[in-house]
Amino acid sequence: MSIGFRVLQQPRKVAVEWVERYRTVPVANVSDSMNRMTAGGASLQPMHNKGVLVGPALTVKARPGDNLMLHHALDIAQPGDVIVVDAGGDLSNALIGEMMVAYAIKRGVAGIVINGAIRDAASIGAGDFPVFAAGITHRGPYKDGPGEVNVPIALGGMVIEPGDLMIGDEDGLLCVPFDQVGEVYDRAHAKHAAEQKQLEQIALGENDRTWVMKSLIQKGCAFS
């Protein structure tokens, strides 16, 4: 086996039913339900106009500035997959642009995450195909490798296994581990419902704010 230059099979992936359920839950609620301990890093921002990113991860570990393995990932991706690329956060060369996004859409890919740079930002920014990246540059990529497909990767300390659930919206990106999608969804759904109720109470002027003073007193805050 050629460590560092290999393509593995995707061992498992989250079911479509979970993809559809998570589509209606804000990423912030999911993050809170995971104790706010997981994030892909603030540098990974939505580059598209609008649209929620949800789907199982097809992971790519790429040499910074090189997109050979990303091209192969696009060729083998199944409809609904999210291609997630760990390119080390390097912004020297763009790994995708307008043409690769068009091909991804044609293939039925659900979105692309690049821990690196993109180009053709105006075209991507005008569209609704979900693209998250760390930056923009006009300089194109090399296509020499090495790299790996369907291996564990990490973005800003967030570990992503092939087939894990990737979600993203205007607040950023999050990975929900394969074995935790059910438990996390139940918590996130309940939190989202509670927040919607709280918004209704705020609109009516009925929200309870006594917890603020109670917390200050409990923590020993002095008042003069």
Task: Describe the 3D structure.
- The protein is α/β, with parallel strands linked by helices.
- It has one domain (5-187): Ribonuclease E inhibitor RraA/RraA-like (Glucose Oxidase, domain 1).
- It has helices at 16-22, 27-33, 68-76, 98-107, 121-126, 181-204, 210-218; strands spanning 5-7, 45-46, 53-62, 82-86, 94-96, 111-118, 131-136, 147-149, 153-155, 158-160, 165-169, 172-176.
- Strands 1, 2, 3, 4, 5, 6, 7, 8, 11 and 12 form a ten-stranded mixed sheet that branches. A two-stranded antiparallel sheet has the order 9-10.
- α2 packs across α6.
- The longest helix has 24 residues, at 181-204.
- The chain starts with a strand and ends in a 6-residue tail after the last helix.
- The mean pLDDT is 96.
Keywords, separated by commas or semicolons:
elongated; 7 helices; 12 strands; Glucose Oxidase, domain 1
Classified by CATH, the class is Alpha Beta
**Total count of helical runs of at least 4 residues:** 7
Characterize the overall form.
Answer: elongated
Q: Given the helix and strand composition, which structural class is it?
A: alpha/beta
Helical residue percent band: 25-40%
Task: Please report the distance between the alpha carbons of the first and last residues.
Answer: 70 Å
Q: In what range is the share of β-strand residues?
A: 25-35%
* CATH fold field value: Glucose Oxidase, domain 1
The assigned CATH architecture is 3-Layer(bba) Sandwich
CATH homologous superfamily assignment: Ribonuclease E inhibitor RraA/RraA-like
Radius of gyration: 20 Å
- Tell me about the largest β-sheet: 10 strands, mixed
What is the helix/strand order?
EHHEEHEEHEHEEEEEEHH
Count the domains.
1
**How many DSSP-defined strands?**
12
Average pLDDT, rounded to a whole number, is 96
Low-confidence stretches: none
Cofactor: Mg(2+); a divalent metal cation
Binding site for Mg(2+): 120
Pfam families: RraA-like
GO molecular function, one term: lyase activity
